[in-house]
Amino acid sequence: MMTTPELVPVLTKEEIQQKIIVLAGMISRDYAGKELLLIGILKGSFIFLSDLVRHLSIPAQIDFIRASSYADTMSSSGTITLTQPVQIDVKNKHLLLVEDIVDTGLTLSCIKDYFRLQGAASIKICAFIDKYERREANIPVDYTCHTTHEGFLVGYGLDYAENYRCLPGIYHLKM
Ligand code: 5GP
To answer: Cα separation of 78 and 53, whole Å?
Structure first.
C-alpha cells in the first residue's frame, strides 16, 4: 500500500536566511585578501550557493561540478563519478566546496582529493547541513548552517527523486 510521505518542518526560510548571513560574515572575514573560488556541487547546492554569495562582502569566483549521487534512493553508493568538471583553473586558488548536505562524507572526500591533485592553495568545505550519524570519511565540515544527527531532509535545493527541491524551508521526509 502507498502511504503519503510526511514533511516535518526543520528550518523555516527566515531561519535559513539568518544563518546564511552569519555564515557569509565568517567566510568573508576568513578569506579577506585571498583569491577565493566557490565550487558548488550540483544539483543540491544551487539555492544555498546563490543565497550565500549575495551576502559575501569580498570578491569571489564561482564554478560548479556535478558528481553522481543517490539517484532515487536514500543511501550513498560510496562510488562517486564526476560528470561535470570545473571550467576555472583551480591552481593556487583557495577553494570552498559548497555542498547541500554531508552525510557519509564519501562524496566530498573524493572531490577534495581530486582538487588537491590539481594544485589548489587550500580546500575547505561549506555544507548547508552537516548530518553526522552515518559519517564514514574523516572529513571536517569547516562551515555549516545546521547540524543534525539523522533523518532524510528535503527542501531548499535538497531532493528526493527530484522532488521537493523548490520548498523554501527544510523538512524531514518521513516515509
Ligand atoms: P555523502 O557522500 O556525504 O553520503 O552524500 C552526500 C550527498 O548525498 C548529498 O549531496 C545529497 O545529494 C545526498 N544526501 C545525503 N543525505 C541526504 C538527505 O538527508 N537528504 C537529501 N535530499 N539528500 C541527501
So the answer is: 30
pLDDT tens per residue, range 60-75: 999 999 987 555 555 5
Catalytic residue set: 103
Q: Select from 65, 68, 100 the residue to mutate for testing ligand 1; criterion: most ligand atoms less than 8 Å from CB.
A: 100
Closest C-alpha to ligand 1, atom 5: 103
6-174 domain in CATH 3.40.50.2020? yes
CA–centroid distance, 14 to ligand 1, in Å, is 23
Residue 11 C-alpha cell reads as: 528550518
pLDDT of residue 132: 93
The one-character DSSP state at 155 is B
Residues 6+ apart with CB under 8 A from 149: 131, 132, 133
- Taking the whole predicted model, whether its pTM rises above 0.85 is answered as yes
State which ligand 1 atom lies nearest to the alpha carbon of 109. Answer: 2
Which amino acid does the sequence have at 152?
F
Task: Compute how many other C-beta atoms are within 10 angstroms of the C-beta atom of residue 19.
Answer: 16
Ligand 1 neighbours (beta carbon < 6 A) = 44, 69-70, 76, 99-107, 131, 152-154, 158-160
